[in-house]
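Provenance and format

Records in this collection were gathered into a single text stream. Each protein contributes a sequence line and a token line. The two records reproduced below are adjacent in the stream.
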Amino acid sequence: MSDARDIEITVNGELRRARVETRRSLVDFLRLDLGLTGSHVGCEHGACGACTVRVDGEAVRGCLMFAVQANGKSVATVESLAKDGKLNALQNAFWEKNGLQCGFCTPGMLMTLSEFLEENPSPDEAQIRDAISGNICRCTGYQAIVDAVLSVAGKETV
């Protein structure tokens, strides 16, 4: 590696050390170096949201951040959401409300919405739509995703 740096990142609660090229994106580091393939690589321009992970609690585009920029930080991927093999409430709602079809956007949606629901545990439909406006879904038409979030917020739809 011509221009490489040593990094330490806590990923899903586990301290990980690696030597990475400075140009390696965070999502590529997670997928290729750590084998955490839940985060998807879509547009590689930050527009689609498929690569969304949380860095120190904040949802970020993993394709726009270099792995070296995450040095010393805590990164949570979609793999961190389920505990002991059980889906969390948001994942379960996506399942129950059919908030996923092909599943390509789902990891990014879940990571975006996990932060959103921490900040706003009782959103309305407009707020949810605004929160996911940076995540592209080509299959669902978004309504099932909105319904899933509303169900988690205790605002069941008919």
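Adjacent record:
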Amino acid sequence: MNFRKITALLLAAVMVLSLTACGNTQPSEPTESTAAAEPTTPVNDGSDVTALSNYSITEAAPHDAVMSAVIAVDADGNPAMTNSTLQMAYWLEFFNFMAQYGSYAAYFGLDPSLPLSEQPSMAENRSWEQYFLESATKGYAQQYALYREAVAGNYTLTEEEQATLDDILDPNGSIAQGAAESGFATAEEYLQDTFGPGVDLQDYYDYVEIYITGNSYYSSLMEKATKDAEAADEAALSAYYDEHAETFAQNNVQKVNNVSVRHILITPEGEQDPNTGDYPEEAWTAAQEAANEVYAQWQNDPTEDNFAALANEKSADPGSNTTGGLCEDFDTATMVTEFSEWSFDPARAYGDSGIVKTSYGYHIMFFVGQTETKGWMERVRSQMPQEVANAQVEEIAAKYPVVFDYTQMRVFDVSTLAEVPEESTAVPEESAVIPEESTVSNG
């Protein structure tokens, strides 16, 4: 595929993307169109994305039979998505993917210069076309449900969000200005250069209205969940921790108070293995011997003050070798495993000492004591909002289900579009053509 320069609002920041193939080559000749009346032979009943092996078409116009075809309905049988909406959702998935992983696309087995329907994706039994199509429909179903819930609750957009929406149809808005600056006669031509000739400004407005409203409503759920988490007392946080104990355990978050320790780090020296980054065995042996020597030296005067002085003199840890080796007030998930396990031994008492090996080297340890801080509570607070909001999204999605018919889906292949003349490819620094990526997980 030979993509022209496009603009994309991704992750709340304007990014100018160049997805054009090397050189000013012309796109490949269009292949035979697969209009809705002549679908590719279905390979299943249409309930999932493998219904068709190829969804691409090379002919489309706004509101024609193909673009107007209903491809999804809600629980009441009302139209929820057409091919024109799919056209935008599908290519946004592709553009977002390329924005994040474009330079590594080959590692995923994706070659943008070849038809996506002919390339197996990283998802089992899915072509890249099917991969992006499935991702687009799942994401849209979620946004559509959030939109419905917001409308049902009389939720209103902020002035800024409404202004972004109104800007789309504004003849003096950013899309119109971007079109003029990029050499297009109309804003609609500018839009179609990105998404294909099967969409118009009203289609885009309707899509973005659902998109912005869904995202805004999700943000309101997150805001409330965050406030609730911040206000939660220890009993509530403890109960949440217990409900998700397995996940917290996997991340080494334990329901105990923070501790403070001092340490002296002795690192191995020598040339590291270029593949593993590890040091040779003799370097580790030498580091262990050096650690034993420093430990023995400290034991001649086994006080905390002497330990701190030796840490400032001997430790290789730049984060603590000017503060007496002090690692202060940390929780169980802060340090590497071996360091943490020694520090949070329930039997540990002031003045306990020892030597611990980690991937960084040998640590001569001195236990200072437990603090009053309960760092696990903040880690629970940080996880709660996302968990709570996403659970609400699942409930909302179940309340407003969307049923897709993949046999009716068609996607215009934008690689068949003629290149914009070289003198007309200037891209403005900001554009509202492509909305920012959703903050809601599609998974």
